[in-house]
Amino acid sequence: MPKDTLTGSRIRERRVLRGMKQAELAREAGISASYLNLIEHNRRRIGGKLLLDIAQILEVEPSALTEGAGAALVAALREAASDMPQSGAELDRIDEFAGRLPGWAQLLADSRLRVTQLERSVETLTDRMTHDPQLAMSLHEMLSTVTAIRSAASILAEPGEIDPEWQGRFHRNIYEDSARLAETSRGLVTYLEADDAQATETGAPQEELDSALEAAGHHVPELEGGADVGRALERLAGRLSRSARALIRDWLDGYAEDATALPLAVMRDALDRVNEPDPMALSQVLAAPVDRVMRRLAAMPAEVLAEPVGLAICDASGVLSYRKPLPDFPMPRFGSGCPLWPLYRALNRPMVLLDGALRPAGRGAAEFRAEALAMPVGAPRANADPLYRAHMLVRPLSPRAEEPDTAEEVGVTCRVCPRKACGARREPSIFG
């Protein structure tokens, strides 16, 4: 229902809030109660002096009766409905619902936002619990210690006499194992409650690399100006572990090589000519490999590329070696992503650009264009199969490029994917 046909509903809502009877408002406005009844049921249009008089009687601004619910609230309600299409929500009456019951509408929109935030937190924590080496080691230590305590206690609980010397040994073992269990538990609690910086210091090298690149915005100004890699390394590496420093050094070497081949000014001019971050079109304009163009697009600052793009890179094992997620297109911090991503299909069809539309499951109506390409790594070798590395560039889908119903629904990883029927699922979802 269009917004301008809901003015009557808002008049009725304001009248009821003030405790006025319909006849009372009609009398003060100089119209009949039957005519006001038609207006309040949106069967008669209202405007001009009558609208101004009624707004003055109700002590509200005329715009409060004519403008209706905010666009942001209506958009949030549409996203909530698109998350659960099976609910049968009346999309054509969203404006009416938001206009008549703005408080409940805002509550629903806020609840949907809160659920989305909690889902992302669960994804992050589950990913961490599954792959975090520090957490796995601590839990293994705790389980081993508990098993040792239980074994010693079961021997002491058995009927019959135990030699005093052996009894003392078992008591001492239980005491020492209990102290070790308490120490491990305290360390685990400290680790889980640590802030992001502390967690990074004790995390896996790949996680340290991801955190450092995220903090830098995946852009290194020093290398755009031709500075030495060592200077950028000192700024980005900071207090990273030795293994993480080695990973970020390799990434910076590749960044410097890409920046030298495709300088920032050249990328800016090419983007002005193409008008969108299309890696294939830019590759033709720049006469550069598509995978290099993808990496450069992911490194562009906001002043060059206003709307950022996402990028995932994996080797032949499927494990992500580089990830730049988008707010509505998350990527797992560890391991591999959704098997339905074109990133993995590209490994089966090397040197062929795969292009398609994706819609993240359970994340509203946001759709993305994904372009994936697998290219050989290194120079050809005699009698040796090449090793391939796949890139997948993700960018918001242009409405004119694809029809909305052509987008394929994909997840992040199986464990946190809400899709129930999926032939590619490899483990149950924690969302049931």
From TrEMBL:
Annotated ranges, domain HTH cro/C1-type: 11-65
TM regions (residue ranges): none
Gene3D superfamilies named among the record's database cross-references: lambda repressor-like DNA-binding domains (1.10.260.40)
InterPro entries (alphabetical): Cro/C1-type_HTH, Lambda_DNA-bd_dom_sf, ScfR_C, TransReg_Diox_bact_type
PROSITE patterns: HTH_CROC1
Keywords: DNA-binding, Transcription, Transcription regulation
Domain of life per record: Bacteria
PANTHER family: HTH-TYPE TRANSCRIPTIONAL REGULATOR (PTHR46797), HTH-TYPE TRANSCRIPTIONAL REGULATOR SUTR (PTHR46797:SF23)
Protein name according to UniProt: Helix-turn-helix domain-containing protein
Lineage: Bacteria, Pseudomonadati, Pseudomonadota, Alphaproteobacteria, Rhodobacterales
